[in-house]
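Hello,

I think I submitted the pyridoxal-5'-phosphate job twice by accident. Can you confirm which output corresponds to this input? Input:
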Amino acid sequence: MQFRTRAIHVGQACDPATGAVVPPLYLATTFVQRAAGEAAEFDYSRSGNPTRKAFETTLASLEGGCGSLAFASGMAATHCVSMLLEPGDHVVAGADIYGGTYRLLHKIASRAGVRVTLASSQHLDQLAAAINPRTRLIWIESPGNPLLSITDLAGCAELAHRHGAWLGVDNTFATPVLTRPLEFGADIVMHSATKYLGGHSDVLGGALVVQNPELLAQLYFIQNATGGVMAPWESFLCSRGLKTLELRVREQCRTAQLIADYLSTHSQVERVLYPGLASHPGHELARRQMQGGFGAMLSFEIRADFAAAKRFVESTRLFQLAVSLGSVESLIEQPASMSHASYDPADRQAHGISDGLVRLSVGLEAFEDLRADLEQAFAAL
Ligand SMILES: Cc1ncc(COP(=O)(O)O)c(C=O)c1O
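Support: Only one job matched these inputs. Its output is below.
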């Protein structure tokens, strides 16, 4: 079956008891056992819940994995991966990653003796140079956050495996509509389901998808032992979100491309970072690695200092001033003061997250309305 058909049908069979076309929401926390110690598939909702299972089954199919685990948030999912590591283990993380992941690795995983090195993942030689004999995990995002850098997933997988490490890919920005990292050899795909999978800014969730059953079992053991699971209502909303994922993402990509084209000719814009522009250093790679679109996230630098960039993001009306992304509503933010405020200022500077950088999450509104909104914010600068 094609992607969009699987998004609707895999794991989402009608309820045999009633014929309900939409599988019911199972709020139960516990399940009656056939005999003492003889549970059927489900016994307790931290260990497994039918509504969560339905979402996990659909997502695993869309990412091409052997299984999936749903979490209470994207960070809970990434935290679960970090708990695979032991004291002295080393992580090489892309420099262009979500600020919360940076914080998790530097401030939480470090307490367990895990060491971290940041490297520009779009330059495989820099990533390779950061590897040491204790490296067990390479962690990247493509497109990266907030600079939209594109990383060669197959190259990274080969590099990781050559050094006995796993490759983990945060696929939140690309979604499985555009890129399926497991097909390029990645070991773990992670999602903030809060973003495109949910798609409507009303659910917080996360997920992991893997293709190796042994790795799935290890991650499941940690998830069940630590308990950061996705709740049934959130699982239900995520399953509903997946049904329209492809349509939403394709349309959002189309509008993002129009906005990128508009911004790249604007006199008040220094540069536009969008993989769909031929001027983007990762454009050719993105054409090979992303199917039929370049994502709906874009960043641009305005010719302004920190205060003026702050004023700009505060003066749009349709683009709402908020962190997060991937929803039907368009959002705007200033990474230096918002999503990437948890970066050390020196790391921010070193990796090109400038004060004048503005990040857009393009939603489903009409392009003309979004352009007019940006135009009036430029006029107010
Ligand atoms: C790319 C990316 N990864 C991970 C996360 C963390 O996800 P959550 O907020 O669902 O914990 C975010 C949140 O903004 C994100 O943008």
